[in-house]
Amino acid sequence: MRGKVRGCALAVMALSASGCASANFFNTTTSWDDAPPTVARVFVVARMKSNELDATLYGAFESTLRKEFTRCGIKSEVMHTDDNTVENLNTASARFQPDSVLVIKDTGGGTVTVNLSNFSQRNELDFELTLLNAAKNTSYWHTYSKFDFRTKALYADNIISGQRLARAIVTRLRDDKVIKQCQMTEEDAKAERDEAAKRAKENSGFNVND
After folding, report:
1. Is residue 163 within 8 Å of residue 61, measured between CB atoms?
2. Domains detected in the chain
């Protein structure tokens, strides 16, 4: 149990140290001896809120992240550093007793104007994600992500953007073989195909009239 509390404390220290949406991951590293640890209970510590990633987007992200972990047979607890003290986070971690701690922290980015004539904009937000073994206080999955969601006339469907970011994170964990118990439904498969098609279109050039 003491190891689990230290795992959350390590996560908190790591945080203090530093419409159409897609999340691209890069520089992903994994580290385990024989097989990845079994993730059954994950405690998520987030530091993500900003002017661009507002309360509506974050709320959709958090609720969807919980649902996605549940779909994978994983119990989760999600807490944000803006809403809790370090003591609260450590107390919640000790009560929840996770086997893993997922740290998500913003590392920069902001709003980029695409077209001045119609105020078309996109938001490019950067995040660092680390998955820790709560008992050993060691990291075994680490990645950086660029979250890109575009707006027109200063508007974005933040609920959909938040949902897509959450699904992208869980999908990446699954693709990296960190979590393996997820069951892909036809709806999930269609959502991934649609996302891939959107990314292909975005990579071919942004059309503000889309």
Report:
1. yes
2. 2-203 (3.30.160.150)
